[in-house]
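Entry type: protein chain
Record version: 2
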Amino acid sequence: MDMHGFTMLEMVIVIVILGIMAAMAIPLWPGSSINIGAGADQLAADLLYTQSLAITSGQRYFWIMTGTTTYQIRNSAGTAITYPGTGSTTINLNAGTSFSTLTNLPSSLVLFDGKGQPYTTSVITGGTRLAASATIRIIAGGITKSVIIYPNTGYVVVQ
């Protein structure tokens, strides 16, 4: 007799084996590290977007932390702009991600002038230029990522 297909017992054994393999793989799944990496990349992109707004308009724009998980991009008048990605004026970090520390950003902001140079104050003219690298750290699931802004050039890098 020629039989094709699987018996019910064979199907159950395969499902049990797959279940055991899945149970072993779940603790190894890098969910938090993927989330924090994506969040750091998005934050860096938003800082560069702020800088590009300043350069293309010839006016000052700044990025400002507004909460433990939120930030805004504002123009020189201090008005929050509508973020094209969400249509909102407030941008949220990825779920489960929050700001950890800000280094060399005493006002929790970084302003870019019309040349793209970073400052640590939000004044329309003058202000305090970023003298040393500034670091914005975000954390998720015990993993920390740093977004670094370099003085003079405003170069942004994720570490």
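Comment: The longest helix spans residues 31-57.
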